[in-house]
Specification:
With about 120 residues, this protein is mainly alpha-helical. The chain is about 65% helix and about 0% strand. The longest helix has 18 residues, at about 40-55.
């Protein structure tokens, strides 16, 4: 399966480039959610949160918290799709370097297939 080989390569890379570990873990949690393995995905998100705190990666930590809430039904669909409205209004024609520590983040919600919702 092609996805598994991509994850295998990403895992190898994350051992060399440690900053990639949180993103790899977030994508892997999403993969397990799509595969209807909710418990596995939620455990991975909890582990990811600990890793992010240790690495001081506030962006992925916030994203992991958001995904956990969204995927467990703790966020209304209005908040889940809020990123679209904000990004359409504020970011259409300009791009600025973002300092995560000094800005409000617009968190993208990974969409889940209808059969999981």
């Amino acid at each position: 399966m092609e996805i598994k080989s991509i994850f295998k390569d990403a895992k190898k890379i994350s051992k060399i480039v440690e900053i990639a570990i949180p993103r790899y873990m977030l994508l892997k949690a999403y993969y397990w959610m799509i595969r209807s393995q909710v418990n596995v995905a939620m455990k991975l998100l909890k582990k990811l949160q600990r890793v992010c705190q240790k690495m001081e990666n506030k962006m992925i930590y916030t994203w992991a918290l958001h995904c956990e809430k969204a995927w467990s039904g703790g966020i209304s669909s209005l908040h889940t799709d809020k990123w679209r409205e904000i990004s359409e209004n504020k970011m259409l024609d300009k791009w600025d370097e973002i300092n995560v520590n000094n800005s409000n983040m617009i968190i993208f919600t990974f969409p889940l297939p209808k059969y999981i919702l």
